[in-house]
# Entry
Amino acid sequence: MADLKERIKEAVSLIKSRTKIKPEIGIILGTGLGALADEIETEETVSYSEIPSFPASTVIGHAGRLVLGKIGGKVVVAMQGRFHYYEGYSLEEITFPVRVMRALGAETFIVSNAAGGMNPQFETGDLMIITDHINLMGVNPLIGVNDERLGPRFPDMSQSYDRKFISLAEEVAREEKIRVQKGVYVAVPGPNLETAAEYRFLRLIGADAVGMSTVPEVIVAVQAGMRVLGISCITDKCLPDALKPANIKAIFKVAGEAEPKLTRLVSKTIGRM
Ligand code: HPA
# Structure
């Protein structure tokens, strides 16, 4: 198999053969939070299956495609359909699209996810601007031979989530009257939800929300020199001493209901980046 840089180049060539537009921002949307992609004034869509080295989407009915176009007056590339570690993809596969977005010219990375809320102040349906993260997946997308052309061997992660973007998103939320929280996101591999003892542990180590995505993509985005904005939708309350059985249908429902305000927050924030 060709080296990573070579494979990125092949993927980029295919996309560039389809559209001349040059995205400034790469976007990956979380479970049940994909409506933003529908708001993009689309210039071109490219199926993952057409792009060399892109992981094949396993979910039936979800072909998976890149949407390239404009939102909030900015040129963006968004993934419609994302990959999770629990589906069996390697972290290199999961983060390959981020590398491609960067190589297409995107210097900003925006990511959303559905997450369980462990901070007792949080309500279901709240949006949480991610201020920092904890990688508890037990794996790392940067393990292996490092290509210095893609980023440093030992990337600094002291300010992974851009402070200006955090303030900007807060400001937009205030203006739009959207309730937002701020906090730390911890990533676990999944796919099972956590035990009460695990939620207690995750809260104790400093996390406000827990989910099964985002951190691998952010690690790669930071290594590649991108500025990152991350937003979680709190879909369920994960309070260890009052834990109710997780209801996946209810989690999707909450994400769906919160989607319009997430879309509004992200598109207005993009407009002012
Ligand atoms: N745990 C992990 N991932 C999640 C949760 C949770 O409680 N809720 C939504 N995604």
